[in-house]
Amino acid sequence: MEKIKMTTPLVEMDGDEMTRILWRMIKEELLLPYIDLKTEYYDLGLEHRNETDDQVTLDSAEATKKYGVAVKCATITPNAARMTEYNLKEMWRSPNGTIRAALDGTVFRAPIVVKGIEPCVRNWEKPITLARHAYGDVYKNTEIKVPGPGKAELVFTAQDGTQIRETIHNFTGSGILQGIHNTDESITSFAKACFNFALDTKQDLWFATKDTISKKYDHNFKDIFQEIYETSYKEKFEAAGIEYFYTLIDDAVARVMKAKGGFIWACKNYDGDVMSDMVSSAFGSLAMMTSVLVSPSGVYEYEAAHGTVQRHYYKHLQGEETSTNSVATIFAWTGALRKRGELDGIEELMIFADKLEKATVKTIEEGKMTKDLALITSLKDVTVLNSEDFIKAVRVTFESL
Ligand code: NAP
Ligand code: MG
User: Fold this and answer.
1) Which of 2, 198, 251, 310 could tie 205 with a disulfide, CB 3.0–4.6 Å?
2) Are 162 and 186 in contact (CB under 8 A)?
3) Distant-in-sequence contacts of 63-66, Cβ < 8 A, 24+ apart
4) Which ligand has the nearest atom to the CA of 274?
């Protein structure tokens, strides 16, 4: 069989530890035999980031802007222990943070639904995609521990010196204070990324805030979404047969629990932080979550939602067998290849991505899986495979389709 040809390179961001091992296996077993893989390779492994003073991360983000689609392996975010382990020059920033800042994106996470790994919420038949605004609010706050009686005020000073002043509270005793902000620019980017992603994936979009209580702050989120929807997306949504739906956050939470799934839930930063952990754990496992960063300019970076699986890597280094789940990393590749196919009009690439995803899911549904899934599956008589044998089993299924 002739290999599938690509025209534009994918930006390939290699990573660390166990996921770096999986990365190579996936390429060798599942991609290179079928695709004339064209990538621009960036080694984001911690050693190379350290050698290049993290320039490689910035370069990979720039390349992503240039080509439009990247696929990223999980990477170590250094902490004190890593400083000694890797003898680092500096405690380099999180590559995900650097890339997110460069692309100004929104992160969309969705579970990979497989029969036999049922969500705890019985009526969730389809995946729920969570879109988290990744800027501002309580994550960029300023706080004061109020020592005793006094007046707290909120003051804005314009460039010309004029001021807006509001009393927050007249304290009669000790207490606490918090200042938070967001920008119209960031909210606008967030809204556009959500509307584009809904169109891309043909799913309804839900958005919720607490605008009845927060009449200016949260209301501003609601208004920006509504205005962008009316002016730029309403017709496209109607043509695609999908809808945009706004409600209060508490109502959204109640409805989500009763829904069938199959929609995108856009959340403010804090809501997204909390709700994405709830949704992902209810669906089963971080190793069964896709994650894609989408910028307002239409640049896509695909990755797995989990980390580098350090504990398994140390076992691997000691020559022990591992059973690490490669599904999310396989889906990062298929997501990126499908998008590349879409943008370049290469239908075989899109078909390949669909088929590889189908083969991965089918392998698990036939009872062949890694240990993490074997522990939570409702299937009987499962075969627990090691990291490499699972990938090989996916290849066998792929060949049979
Ligand atoms: P982790 O790599 O996600 O792993 C935590 C635990 O979850 C593992 O020990 C394992 O449990 C289980 N697990 C996660 N992924 C799995 C998979 N694919 N297959 C099977 N089990 C899986 O998180 P971490 O150990 O806290 O972090 C390790 C490194 O990853 C850190 O240096 C961190 O900075 C980095 N990190 C990177 C990203 C990213 O690049 N996107 C995200 C998060 C963390 P058991 O040990 O019980 O089997
Ligand atoms: Mg969290």
Assistant:
1) 198
2) no
3) 63/11, 64/11, 64/99, 64/102, 64/103, 64/299, 64/301, 65/102, 65/103, 65/297, 65/299
4) 2
Query: Ligand 2 centroid vs 362 CA: distance in angstroms?
Result: 30
Hey, what are 66's tokens? 């240039």
Q: How far apart are CA 284 and CA 112, in angstroms?
A: 9
Q: Which residues are registered as beta bridge partners of 92?
A: none
Q: What is the mean pLDDT of residues 104-122?
A: 89
* Cβ contacts of 155 within 8 Å, gap of 6 or more: 163, 164, 165
Closest CA to 263 of 197, 331, 211: 197
Ligand nearest to the CA of 139: 2
Angle at 371 between CA 367 and CA 374, to 5 degrees: 45
Which residues sit with their C-beta closer than 6 Å to ligand 1? 74-77, 96, 286-287, 303, 306-311, 324-325, 372
269 C-alpha to ligand 2 centroid (Å): 10
301-338 residue pLDDT tens: 999 989 999 999 999 999 999 999 999 999 999 999 99
Neighbours of 127 (CB within 10 A): 23
Residues in the chain: 401
**Closest ligand 1 atom to the C-alpha of 371?**
20
pLDDT digits (tens, 9 = 90+) for 218-260: 999 999 999 999 999 999 999 999 999 999 999 999 999 999 9
Alpha-carbon distance of 128 to 111, in angstroms, equals 7
Amino acid letter for position 296: P
Which atom of ligand 1 is closest in space to residue 325's alpha carbon?
19
Distance from the CA of 106 to the center of ligand 2, in angstroms? 15
Q: Are 368 and 390 in contact (CB under 8 A)?
A: yes
Q: How far is the CA of 267 from the centre of ligand 2 (A)?
A: 13
Paired with 246 in beta bridges are 207
